[in-house]
Every structure is written in C-alpha cells, then in structure tokens.
Amino acid sequence: xxxxxxxxxxxxxxxxxxxxxxxxxxxxxxxxxxxxxxxxxxxxxxxxxxxxxxxxxxxxxxxxxxxxxxxxxxxxxxxxxxxxxxxxxxxxxxxxxxxxxxxxxxxxxxxxxxxxxxxxxxxxxxxxxxxxxxxxxxxxxxxxxxxxxxxxxxxxxxxxxxxxxxxxxxxxxxxxxxxxxxxxxxxxxxxxxxxxxxxxxxxxxxxxxxxxxxxxxxxxxxxxxxxxxxxxxxxxxxxxxxxxxxxxxxxxxxxxxxxxxxxxxxxxxxxxxxxxxxxxxxxxxxxxxxxxxxxxxxxxxxxxxxxxxxxxxxxxxxxxxxxxxxxxxxxxxxxxxxxxxxxxxxxxxxxxxxxxxxxxxxxxxxxxxxxxxxxxxxxxxxxxxxxxxxxxxxxxxxxxxxxxxxxxxxxxxxxxxxxxxxxxxxxxxxxxxxxxxxxxxxx
Length: 443
Description:
This protein has eight helices and 23 strands. The chain has 443 residues and is α+β, with helices and mostly antiparallel strands. The protein has five domains: 14-46 and 273-329, conserved putative lor/sdh protein from methanococcus maripaludis s2 fold; 58-93 and 153-185, CATH 2.40.50.100; 96-152, no CATH class; 187-269, Elongation Factor Tu (Ef-tu), domain 3, CATH 2.40.30.170; 355-412, no CATH class. The strands form four sheets. Strands 3-12-15-14-13-16 form a six-stranded antiparallel β-barrel. Strands 4-11-9-6 form a four-stranded antiparallel sheet, with no helix packed on it.
C-alpha cells in the first residue's frame, strides 16, 4: 500500500456485513411483493427430462447359421418382420456332408447290433456326436437310426420366440457354415438409451427409476430402471449415456423410435434446500436475503451445492429453518447496494481511526492471545496458533505484526486541519474623515 503496509484480502462477506440489515415497513413490503420461504433439510432428489431411443435387447437377439455348407431348398419364413415361435421351421438345407454322416450312422448302428463290439460302438457314438454338433435333435437322430432312412435335407428350426429382423436366406442359394441366414429378436423386452448432460452425471446411477413416454401415442408411461451407465463421455455432445430396461409386452416400443425419458434420481442423502429464485447470482458471489424478523432482512453470502429442479442445495451461509426471500429480493438487493454505497462514501470521507484498533490489539496481547483476524471488526477472535478465522475464514495473523502495522498508520496519518479564527469586523469611519482623538475632543 502507499503507506508501506502489507495488503490483506478482504473477506467476501465483509461488505455485506457492513451493510447490516434492511428494515421495511409493511406497506412498502406489500408494494414490493416480498415473499419468503423456509430453508429445509430434505432428501436430495431430482427429476431430469431428456430424450432417448429404443434399441434391441442384445441379450435377446439370436443369429441363425447352419454349421454346414449346402443349398437352401425350401423356405418356411420368407420375409423380414415375420413373427416366429421356438421350434417353428425356418428352411431346409441340402448338405452332402449331412447325407454321408447319416449313412455312417445307419451303418454303425447295424454293425454294433450285429457285433456289439466297443469299436463299432465308438464309431456309432462319433456319428451321433457330429449330427448333434449340426443341431440335429436327439429325437431326429433316433428316428434315423430306427428307420434306417437317410434324409436328403435338414430342416432348421427357430431356437427362440421373436421377430425376424434380418433375413439372408433365399431358396436355391448356396450357403457356407459361417453365413448368417436369419437374425431373430425377442421384442417382449427392449432397451432405451437415454442421453444426459454432463452436469447431470452425478444423478445418473444404476438402479435409478425412469419413466418413458412415447410422445405421439397418448398411452400411459412405461416404468423402468437404469441397469447400466456407460463409463465414458461422448466427446462431441458432452453427454453421458445410460441404458434402461423396459417391458414391451404390448409392443408399443419399436427399435429406433425416439421417446421422452424422465429420470427420478435419489442421492440417498439429505441437504439444505431453498427455492432457486431466492439466490441472487452476481457472477462473483451468491447472495440470499434472510428475514431476521418481520420487516427486517439481512443479505448473506452462500455456497451452492447441487441443482435440484426448482430448488438448490446450500452448503454454507444459512441454517435450516431460516426464512429466505423468494420474491422481491432484487428490490432488497438494490436497497442494500445503495446503503453499501452510502456507507463506503462515509467511510472514505471520515478520518481513519487506527488508535482504537491499536488499543484492541494491545488488549488481546494482554489477554495472552498470539493470533487474530486481520479484519478490525474481528479483533475479538483470539487464537494461539495460525488458522482460519471462524468469522470469515481468512488466515489469522500474528498480533505483534498487526499491532506494528496499525501503529505505523497512526503515526503516518496527517493531523486534523486546524480551523482558522473568524474574521473581526472593521470599525465604522468617523464623521471627520476617520481621525480619532484620544480624549474624544475636537482639534
């Protein structure tokens, strides 16, 4: 500073504390429309509205292949979108390898019945195992053995209920064992992928309940839960993706459909909540006005926590049960700023009285204190070691250092100006032109 003192940062609450309370009579309060609400300790819950899209449940999708090279001979399901049941025939395939293995099975069965040797038994079991690998049922194998007839084609059946969502089989087409011929999806249960903004990520958790609406069908919402949250953020959209499992027995949800999602998140803990409108955000600090008594309001700097719909969590600055202004607070803010400006003007106009500060610091030393807050209004704080001031959070300073600074200010302060004596009135002129005789006689 110009006076050689170390500059000390000012507490963020000092200016507001200097303003003090604002008192307003009932008629003015009514004209300003002031309304209050109580700060309450309540569970931290939030409802988040977002968009999602329907997708297949990947655990309920079945891919159909043949495990054999051959020709498709007959088609039982010949278009995409057809509904099938487990065990329904899909198509038949003519596979030379299948015919030769069946012939081996029949020959091995006859040889084993004739000789009963372990060698023939092993050949028979090997032929059975190859047919099982090709998804031929035990019942079908038994039929081939008992009848001795070799089937020229193999009928491929559906392994699950569902809808044919992909079809690559055509009558007469030659297919290989690794060719995907059908894909069947069970749509009785589907997934919805919901996208949430980065700021909502703390509320998106496994087990959170969600309500999904199809915006254009007019039906009731469908209840579900989040069963997976993806462990990364989309680099382009800055969104978190979560997966919701939904029952779809009525078939209202169709894959690739857009839906509205309402997430109801519960953090499982309590917090101090006020109406969001109570907070005045200046960009530098957050302020609420607390009603200390009817007609009296005090500004408080608060620290904000999580945003919960129309309420916001307060982590410091007020206590549960205090009344905060939720309407008319900007009028109070204007009044407090005017009062603050007047107070600053008066402080700048008045001489600084450091003598009182010196006396208070000397008294703290006599009481055995070693540290105190650097703010004069907090000189009553007494500590034996450094730490934050319990009043404003500033770092406490050694009292001898503060005392030296304030004594230097007292010595450097200019003396108050001395008032000049009032001017005296001049004597009126005499009739003879101003000559005055000692005894008042005429010359």
